Amino acid sequence: MYVITGITGQVGGAVARTLLGAGRPVRAIVRDARKGAAWAERGCDVALADLNDAAALASAFKGAQRRLCHGSADIRSSARFSRGAGALCRASNCA
């Protein structure tokens, strides 16, 4: 299972389409269930999680063989970016 954050963006989406095209299992981590629905229709497993929620991320990462943690940084809020980076690190150690 490949788990991807930032799947609704250009880079994450391109990686997911490539993996799905190769028949690989993909889990999309999204904040918005409506955006996740489009990926579910393409064959992804979908997990809802915010990048600031280490517990939700750890749950979404379970069973992952590979993770692509990608997303755009909100440069207007370095504190939010720092919290998100910290949550990703904590979740990666938990999964």
UniProtKB/TrEMBL annotation:
Keyword list (alphabetical) reads:
Plasmid
Cite the NmrA-like domain residue spans from the record. 3-66
Gene3D superfamilies in the record, alphabetically? NAD(P)-binding Rossmann-like Domain (3.40.50.720)
For the keyword Signal, the answer is no
Pfam families (alphabetical): NmrA
Q: InterPro entries, from UniProt?
A: NAD(P)-bd_dom_sf, NmrA-like
Coiled coil: which residue ranges?
A: none
- Name of protein: NmrA-like domain-containing protein
